[in-house]
Records
---
Amino acid sequence: MTVRHRDGIHFEFGDGRRIVADARSAAGDVNVVSHAHADHTFRSTPGTVVCAAETAAIAEARTGVGFEFVERVPGIDLVPAGHVVGSRAAIVDRDRLSLGESLEPQPERGDADHRRYCYTGDFSIRDRCYLEGFDPTAVETDVLVMETTYGRPAYRFPPQEELEAAIVDWIRDNDERPLFLFGYSLGRAQKLQWLARAATGGVDDGSDAERDVLVADSIHEVNRAIEAATDLSFPGRPYDSLRGLEDEIVVLPSNQARADWVERAVDREDGLKAGFSGWAVDDGFRYRGNYDVTFPLTDHCDFDDLVATVEAIDPAVVYTHHGFDAAFATTLETEYGYRARPLKRDQRTLAEFS
Ligand SMILES: [Zn+2]
């Protein structure tokens, strides 16, 4: 098997068959959708699409386009990736794989030792709010293909409980002004609503002291899709940017942080803006979003989580992609003694090891 980074990550067999993960226009024999962040255009794909039912439901709610999918393929196990609702890592076992009739896997030149491949997709090993983290201790694989967004030591975030408590405290401390919280529509936005509810006592006592939580329409749609597919619920009601506010908590997509309509509403209502991302450890993040405060709340691993993942799995080979892929591969090789390479886009890399 050869692993390549093209449109998505491709696992290629010698006879041309492919498993393709997280491509925009997938054309593999099997297409893995790890989670619903990317824009998938699978309407015309001849291959099988494999993903969690929650991912298909959220993707349809976000794009308006549904697709046929299965939750199981023999030889490909999906395990929770702890990134967003429905996110899955894929573990491919070459010897158990069945890609259709007359498609028996064959031994590959130079790669006889590697039978199992784990593709993490975006992942986090931390339990957060309502989401359980990826469990690397349960994964057995020869080859680990991992996302390395925060693969430099500068990106170390506080323990999750401490981080969530700091956010809750900040919300409670600022209870006389509207608060504008910014995060991705899928993932961070739901966790911010969760923390807002925890901060205002809305979970347990349902008292009148609860502050209203308002959300952008795009977030509301994702909420509804998740609520329909799971037993989770989120407090956000649709936000009308023209209405006057008192002490409401408004959750908006992070790409709107500097939008004129947002800045006008924040100024008019004397609100505070808070940004949430792992990039918050960089000074520039605060200024780019014009935030009053930032927190390194993320749905990805920090540097230490990435190292802990590799050590727990202890694979023969690691391929890194996204973010600081080259730096992290170098760290794994020089400081931890692993065979590691960044998966550079459009470059064949497995051959380097054979
Ligand atoms: Zn993602």
---
Amino acid sequence: MKNTQHDEFMRMAIALSEQNVAQGLGGPFGAVIVKDGEVIAGSGNKVVPNNDPTAHAEVSAIRLACQKLNTFSLEGCVIYTSCEPCPMCLAAIYWARIDKIYYANTKVDAAAIGFDDHFIYEELDRPVAERKLPVVQLLRNEALGAFKAWTDSTSKTHY
Ligand SMILES: [Zn+2]
């Protein structure tokens, strides 16, 4: 793919980020998912209109692309995002098996306008017991039943 095509797809992601602000929909973020040079899905950030804290542009675009392609794997796809992905989106991109990330604004640019995800990276670096978010284990023996059933199942879909 020529660099100009990468620029074209990134401009679509940027346009989604601009539309989001212009239409008062939410944060200035947009993402586009492309497969074999064809746009599969694109989305702006939808946290506010959807009342969904996970509806970042990248996660929203992944959901749309998976619906469109009727699959849980976006292997063979690349994502163009108007801003460097946050830890949640980065993890979602890994889970979706997207091949490559192209980004425009950096996380430092995002932090400068009030969207700071640095604290999450800091949290991940700390031992669980030292994190701000309390994490408590309960009922492991009861929960293991589903794991055993999964292990024994002959009808499961591996993903
Ligand atoms: Zn994100």
